[in-house]
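Box 3.1 A note on notation
Throughout this textbook, protein chains are presented in two layers. The first layer is the amino acid sequence; the second is a token string describing backbone geometry. Keep the layers aligned when reading.
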Amino acid sequence: MSNPRFSPAIRIAFWMSVTALAFGVLMGMVRYTGEELNVFVISFWRFVFGILFFIPWFLRVGTSGLKTSRAGLHIIRACFLIVSSVCLMSAIMLMPLDEATAISFTTPLFTVIGAILFLKEKAGLQRWIALIIGFVGILVILRPGIEMMNWAALLVMVSAVTFAGVVLCGKVLTRTDSPELLVASLALISVPLSFVPALMFWQWPTAEQFFFLIMIALASNLNMYGIVKSLQIGDASATQPYDFLRLPTTAGIGWLAFGQTSDVLTWVGAIIIFGSTIFITHREARARKKAEGLS
């Protein structure tokens, strides 16, 4: 699909479809494996097997490629990722896959709020309105007054907030460090950090579970790879609309593998949340192009 004869739009659609499929498979395999293995153990092995992806890069650049003046921020970013991963894995053991996916669409909203609070980015009235609309979507999914927010939904929200932390730390680190270092350091640091809590719930996986853990790592890497490839072809405003494909993918896997059925309000809320993130992403892209045109 990298052949130039395919238009950028087709290539973005392809790689974002790959990302959505990988995400759905990842969620399904975590849900299945988590019935017998603790999520801290799953998270640890995911990072262990995931780091194998970077061995060729490590061999090529050596220790010089790992030099950074911001080691502390790299560690904080890895901590955010571990918390986000464990919270999402825990949540999908307690709630339908499609509902967890729908709430996870709030990550861009929390990223914008974090950028305003911590990176001092400016926010106009339209952006704040879009944020409010996005959180109305959350209320539609959770239906307060009919069913109080449960622990599973709260875990997904924590996962979304902490993954926004991963994104924001990455924004700061890109000013001084290469993209390869950002991805590789995340894997390297996450292994020892995730081992500590995993040790408290340690279980040696069976041969079958090891197979699924390897597949979880592969699906996770493929999910991220698809996103990176899409962003290489076009900016975030071009890729964001396809991110909604994650919802039907996870809903389909939840129905086929676990007999989970979708709630209409979950889809309505997800569309509201997603619409607000599309608006914000589109406006940021326009503002960036305008700034580049003036510079």
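The chain has one domain: 8-294. Residues 8-294 form one domain.
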